[in-house]
């Protein structure tokens, strides 16, 4: 069996996302053999003629596009998809093409479930596939409420709609920010030379020192995705966070946001992802991202390829 030969490689792929879903080799072999049989029986009983890959999933190309661009490693890919279990339980339907596609980067560890990522290398833009996915290339033993059950084998329909350059991603996020400001009828946001949008919601102490590189600043904060009212990160209670402005160990957005502030000042900053937490693993459905982060399966809770809002109250400057 081909997959027995490549088992060590497979194990490396499966733990490629920050140690996500780790399994010892013997457990992985058991999962492979179990899911191989389940998928084989499912395809046979439903008379589905699908192509088996060396990695372990099966696929059918539903729509071809010979004039599309071949997807290659490190492409930023926009997709539409439907994820179901082989028993027909819907996990997520994101197929409405009046909405923008959801984006991930085609790299090892670029997406959960992995089979969509692996399938990218077979596709050209505009092509649609049906993937028949063993649990060890999906969510493995992970479960989430009644939405995802442990060891679920999946049927995934995916359209690899488009690829984007990094500059195109920046343009998309700029449009998202401007649309957000317009739709919410927000005033007072000013775009800086560094391409972040800053609004002062409360002026600071006029006698306070103004923050500059090398200053120590204490502040409380909240960080939200653009489409959410619930912070994905925030300071604990009233305990302020402390950083040295301009430190190379800070994320870019901290150094860009925290300059020129006074004690007592409150600001809101809208930050494109390349100045925020950068590119991390994408997760479908979005619903499970926080749970994966909380359980240690992801190192970054912020979604990639989307702006975020950073709300700050300065408590001290020195």
Automatic annotation (TrEMBL):
The similarity comment for this entry is:
Belongs to the FKBP-type PPIase family.
Class in the EC hierarchy, top level: isomerase
Q: What is its EC number?
A: 5.2.1.8
The answer to keyword Isomerase applying to this record is yes
Q: Which Pfam families match?
A: FKBP_C (PF00254)
What organism is listed for this UniProt entry? Aquiflexum gelatinilyticum
Q: Which UniProt keywords apply?
A: Isomerase, Rotamase
Which PANTHER family does UniProt cross-reference here?
A: 39 KDA FK506-BINDING NUCLEAR PROTEIN, FKBP-TYPE PEPTIDYL-PROLYL CIS-TRANS ISOMERASE FKPA
One of the record's GO molecular function terms: peptidyl-prolyl cis-trans isomerase activity
Report the residue ranges that make up the PPIase FKBP-type domain in this protein. 74-164, 214-318
The protein's superkingdom reads Bacteria
Is the Isomerase keyword given for this protein? Answer: yes
- Catalytic activity annotation: [protein]-peptidylproline (omega=180) = [protein]-peptidylproline (omega=0)
What is the recorded name of this protein?
Answer: Peptidyl-prolyl cis-trans isomerase
């Amino acid at each position: 069996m081909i997959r027995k030969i490549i088992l060590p490689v497979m194990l490396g792929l499966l733990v490629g996302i920050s140690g996500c879903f780790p399994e010892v080799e013997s457990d992985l072999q058991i999962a492979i053999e179990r899911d191989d049989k389940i998928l084989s029986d499912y395809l046979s009983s439903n008379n589905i003629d699908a192509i088996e890959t060396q990695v372990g999933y099966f696929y059918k190309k539903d729509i071809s596009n010979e004039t599309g661009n071949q997807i290659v490693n490190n492409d930023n890919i926009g997709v539409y998809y439907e994820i179901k279990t082989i028993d027909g339980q819907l996990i997520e339907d994101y197929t409405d093409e009046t909405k923008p596609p959801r984006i991930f980067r085609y790299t090892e560890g670029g997406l959960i479930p992995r089979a969509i990522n692996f399938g990218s290398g077979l596709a050209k833009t505009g092509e649609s596939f049906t993937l028949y996915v063993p649990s060890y290339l999906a969510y493995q033993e992970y479960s989430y409420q009644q939405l995802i059950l442990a060891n679920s084998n999946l049927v995934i329909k995916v359209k690899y709609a488009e690829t984007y350059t990094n500059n195109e991603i920046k343009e998309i996020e700029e449009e998202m920010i401007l649309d957000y400001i317009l739709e919410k009828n927000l005033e007072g946001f000013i775009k800086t030379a560094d391409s972040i949008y800053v609004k002062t919601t409360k002026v600071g102490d006029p006698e306070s020192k103004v923050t500059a590189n090398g200053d120590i600043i204490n502040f409380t904060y909240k960080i939200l995705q653009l489409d959410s009212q619930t912070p994905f990160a925030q300071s604990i209670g009233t305990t302020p966070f402390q950083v040295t402005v301009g430190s190379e160990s800070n994320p870019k957005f901290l150094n860009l946001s925290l300059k020129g502030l006074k004690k007592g000042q409150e600001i809101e900053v809208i930050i494109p992802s390349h100045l925020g937490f950068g590119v991390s693993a994408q997760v479908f459905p979005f619903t499970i991202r926080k749970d994966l982060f909380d359980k240690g399966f992801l190192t970054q809770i912020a979604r990639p390829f989307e702006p975020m809002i950073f709300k700050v109250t300065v408590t001290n400057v020195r």
